[in-house]
């Protein structure tokens, strides 16, 4: 049986989840700015509760962004450190896809427009459709003003809006059948997506655990004088 460990710190939420012997355990907290202090203790507690040694983990999944710059870096740093030490592969998972997967799990939404508040009057945006229990990207992920978001071409049926980006309300160029601006990514859903990716053989080496910001100018180092 596969043992997968998933972690996410890309937004205000900090969460970890473990799949072992077909059983799933998870911890989830909304703790802005405390991710760095809480993440490793959460992992240790989870493994202890499951009675699983870290060395038993086959692969590590993480929220690769888009999201808060610092939060995404924390996840990448921790997962790389663990993966290098354990000599295990990693599974990068989109934060937007994770939110869509949570909307599918909790709301039964088959079509989800996921949006994260990207500050600077922009949102991180991605549209997803359920395919055999997995929320899959329709189109591409992007960062853009709320007024410029759109659904995939030829879209029909109802769309559910999920994520903090929906706090922009009427400014968003898409009006869903329903929305939840409080929905944050949960490692439980990241774990589900990682399971599909693992089955497809999409795990990569630890040094390929790279953050995805969608913005090219985030924390760009200044040119030397």
Question: Which terms would index this structure?
Answer:
225 residues; Nucleotidyltransferase, domain 5; alpha/beta; six-stranded mixed β-sheet; five-stranded mixed β-sheet; 2 domains; 4 helices; 11 strands
Concise structural overview:
This protein is α/β, with parallel strands linked by helices and about 220 residues long. Helix content is about 25%, strand content about 25%.
Output the CATH homologous superfamily of the largest domain: ATPase, nucleotide binding domain
Q: What count of structural domains?
A: 2
Report the span from N to C terminus: 55 Å
- Secondary-structure element order, as H and E? EEEHEHEHEEEEEEH
Helix proportion: 25-40%
Q: Give the CATH architecture of the largest domain.
A: 2-Layer Sandwich
Give Rg in angstroms: 17 Å
- Mean pLDDT comes to 95
CATH class of the largest domain: Alpha Beta
**Overall 3D geometry?**
globular
Strand content: 25-35%
How many strand segments? 11
Structural classification = alpha/beta
Biggest beta sheet attributes: 6 strands, mixed
Under CATH, the topology of the largest domain can be stated as Nucleotidyltransferase, domain 5
Domain Gcp-like: 31-152
Protein name: tRNA threonylcarbamoyladenosine biosynthesis protein TsaB
Main location: cytoplasm
InterPro entries: ATPase_NBD, Gcp-like_dom, T6A_TsaB
Please describe what this structure looks like.
The protein is of the alpha/beta class and 225 residues long. It folds into two domains: 3-94 and 185-208, 2-Layer Sandwich (Nucleotidyltransferase, domain 5), CATH 3.30.420.40; 108-180, 2-Layer Sandwich (Nucleotidyltransferase, domain 5), CATH 3.30.420. Helix content is 27%, strand content 26%. Strands 6, 7, 8, 9, 10 and 11 form a six-stranded mixed beta sheet that branches. Strands 3-2-1-4-5 form a five-stranded mixed beta sheet, with helices on both faces. Helix 3 crosses helix 4 (187-199). The chain is globular, with a radius of gyration of 17 Å.
């Amino acid at each position: 049986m596969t043992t997968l460990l998933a972690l996410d710190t890309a937004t205000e939420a900090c969460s970890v989840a473990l799949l072992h012997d077909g059983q799933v355990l998870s911890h989830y907290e909304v703790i802005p700015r405390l991710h760095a202090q809480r993440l490793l203790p959460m992992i240790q507690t989870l493994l202890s509760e499951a009675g699983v040694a870290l060395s038993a983990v086959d692969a590590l999944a993480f929220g690769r962004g888009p999201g808060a710059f610092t939060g995404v870096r924390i996840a990448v740093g921790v997962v790389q450190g663990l993966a290098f030490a354990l000599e295990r592969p990693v599974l990068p998972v989109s934060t937007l896809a994770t939110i869509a997967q949570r909307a599918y799990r909790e709301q039964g939404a088959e079509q989800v427009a996921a949006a994260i508040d990207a500050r600077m009057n922009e949102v991180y945006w991605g549209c997803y459709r359920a395919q055999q229990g997995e929320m899959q990207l329709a189109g591409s992920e992007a960062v853009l003003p709320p007024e410029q978001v759109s659904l995939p071409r030829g879209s029909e049926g109802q769309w559910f809006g999920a994520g903090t980006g929906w706090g922009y309300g009427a400014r968003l160029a898409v009006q869903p059948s329903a929305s939840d601006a409080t929905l944050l990514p949960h490692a439980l859903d990241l774990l589900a997506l990682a399971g599909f990716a693992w089955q497809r053989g999409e795990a990569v080496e630890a040094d390929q655990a790279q953050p995805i910001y969608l913005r090219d100018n985030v924390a760009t180092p200044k040119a030397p004088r």
